[in-house]
Amino acid sequence: MQNVAQPYRSVLYIPGSKPRALEKAQSLPVDAIIFDLEDAVSPDEKATARALLAETLRATDYGPRKRIVRVNGGDTEWGAADLETFIDVAPDAILLPKVEDTAVIADLAARLKGETTIWAMMETPRGILNAAALAAAPKMEGFVMGTNDLAKDLGSRGRRAMLTSLQLSLLAARAEGLICVDGVYNAFKDEDGLRMECEEGRDMGFDGKTLIHPAQVAVANAVFGPSEEELDLARRQIAAYEQAKADGQGVAVVDGKIVENLHVETATRLLAKADAIKLLEGA
Ligand SMILES: CC(C)(COP(=O)(O)OP(=O)(O)OC[C@H]1O[C@@H](n2cnc3c(N)ncnc32)[C@H](O)[C@@H]1OP(=O)(O)O)[C@@H](O)C(=O)NCCC(=O)NCCSC(=O)C[C@H](O)C(=O)O
Ligand SMILES: [Mg+2]
């Protein structure tokens, strides 16, 4: 079940093969890191990346940043050794690529140690069609949209073609209380394009955006974090609803719009998220 206050505004991929990037991540203001052994690492670097990442995670304090390790798939020559290694390292989560059925999740769930949870890449047509079952599988905590692989399998172009898959994954995630993070924006030097895509993802309901470069972090944190205006409205909604209740009413009005219990729940969650962000940024 999702810890609603834990922010996942910015979730940065770091190739497990790059020592400089692994070091740099300790000081980046990201909410979570995906340490990648899959697509960001070339076949001839897989074994050294696995060893480097295991050693780094055992020795390094990444502070409050969630540590998620993306392993290679079970159908590759590296998948089994990746899992064996990182079940033992016990990061916050293990992210499985190209997940299509619940068996692979159930197998991993039975082997996990400590508090490690499971995340799934949602990036194949079959995986998207099975989203509800995947979300309900044991130890599942989050979905990450893999929009590059999806576009490849669909033969599609552009964001519009992604919408059904994004929404199906979000629906399935929310039905089970999971985190759901949007796919990457490949043009990492195009800040305006990134901002637009972050805003679209935020409005759809995603918790945050996966990122590929440190230059993308500030935009994702800003777009997915609550603004001062939103926080001010949330506080006024809660106060107005409390007053309405004290007056024997079930509904308040703020800025010409009704406020009911459900809006107060949303407002309370927003304030909790802001507090969690403050804590994280002060850490
Ligand atoms: C995209 C990059 C290859 C660009 O690398 P580079 O040209 O080296 O960037 P810079 O010179 O601008 O780097 C500046 C400094 O920032 C550090 N850096 C760069 N990227 C990262 C990172 N991701 N995390 C941490 N630090 C990073 C550099 O070391 C430089 O540091 P300094 O020496 O102090 O100046 C590169 O950014 C990159 O490899 N990005 C990650 C790519 C990746 O992870 N791809 C796989 C995930 S995407 C995917 O698979 C999605 C999904 O599966 C799907 O299907 O959609
Ligand atoms: Mg992918």
UniProtKB/TrEMBL annotation:
Gene Ontology terms, MF aspect = catalytic activity; magnesium ion binding
Q: Where is the HpcH/HpaI aldolase/citrate lyase domain?
A: 9-214
Q: Which residues bind substrate?
A: R70, E123
- Pfam entry (one): HpcH_HpaI
Cofactors demanded by this protein: Mg(2+)
Q: Which UniProt keywords apply?
A: Magnesium, Metal-binding
Is Transferase one of the keywords? no
Q: Name one GO biological process term.
A: oxaloacetate metabolic process
Which residues of the sequence carry a binding annotation for Mg(2+)? E123, D149
Q: Does the keyword Oxidoreductase apply?
A: no
The text of the family note is: Belongs to the HpcH/HpaI aldolase family.
> Which PANTHER family does the record cross-reference, listed alphabetically?
CITRATE LYASE SUBUNIT BETA, LYASE BETA SUBUNIT, PUTATIVE (AFU_ORTHOLOGUE AFUA_4G13030)-RELATED
State the protein's name. Answer: (3S)-malyl-CoA thioesterase
Q: Lineage from the top down?
A: Bacteria, Pseudomonadati, Pseudomonadota, Alphaproteobacteria, Rhodobacterales
